[in-house]
Design a protein that fits this description.
By secondary structure, the chain is an alpha+beta fold. Helix content is 50%, strand content 14%. It has 14 helices and nine strands. Helix 3 crosses helix 7, helix 9 packs antiparallel against helix 10 and helix 10 runs antiparallel to helix 12.
Length: 392
Amino acid sequence: MDFALTDRQQELARRYRDIGAHHARLDARDGFDWNAWHTITDAGLWQLAVPTALGGAGGTWADFTAAFEALVGTLRSIGFAMAVANQATLIHALLAHGSRGQQANVLPRLLNGEPGATAISERGTGTEIRALQTALTNDEQDFRLNGHKYNVSLAPHAALVLVASRYDDGPRSATALVLLDTALRGVSRSVPQATLGVHDLPIGELEFDDVPIDAGSLLGTPREGLKTLMHIASMNRAYFGLLCAASIHPFLADALAYAGTRSILDVSIDTHQHVQRRLVDVRIRAERSRWMALAALGQLLDDHPAALENCSIAKLTAAQDLTQSAIDLLALHGSNGYRSGMLSAFAADALAMISAGGTEEMHRRNIFAQMQRRPDAAAKSAAPVRREAAPA
């Protein structure tokens, strides 16, 4: 297997590594970095994997991934990286599932940098699709959308939102995916909400009050809605896994430099095995998270039957690795790390990945469901269960 970057991908990596370094978040300031957003838009990040016929650069998702990893690896902002992953996921959703009309009218807006969001989570039920309260209903002409969404990244600023909703058409409910413009009548949103971390990523709520929806705003059909949503969410999970792996790199570099210059009794602390172990463990976690995420992403793009399961595994394990690595880096820096600053802010940001893109429990439930549905060789070779006879 050849994992080497092409010449073009190496050039993309250099370009976006420089952009990330130029816009690196060097203090724990609040607020989204729109200058960085405009820079990556002008550089053509959103067009990389889009066919030329649809206004793109005609490249592949491997091209985008090379640029994404390089950008995230120097930017020092988990929040901004989440927004980039979310935008890319929405673009991929339109390419994979959008109608010609949506690709002609909605896709160009995303490619031009209008921020998009995906709204699934709701108050009280989180991302449990079977418990969706937001509902799409028929009226005499088109549809109406009513409900709310909670903890939506970039909700206070998003121009376009993909909304997961319940659609009752017959005895069973289906999942309808609605692409809507937030300027529509009946759409309201909150101000950015207070969060423990990712203060540079505005997170808010959306309310839908009898919002008029035409049939052309549905992404796919409700009959295929759940399957489509799982595919979209899996793409996001894979990129969140890559995000977790790449975002630690500049902080690991800081820690290596710190350990080499911090001396106790005229001996630098990086000569101690327990310090070396912490640093090596951070590196190991980042590498295993990266490769798992890349493998899962590759499976998803190839429509491999194990992709949904492995995208959940990638996101779940990468989030666990990132949070443990952030704690290890704090411990390495001692009381200096705990002081208010970029490292402590990074640790708080890392904790966001525990729930962003789905909680640990949700992913474990998905993995178990996929294990039950997919009768692989291991399941087929399992020994039959022997039932003991009841005592007389």
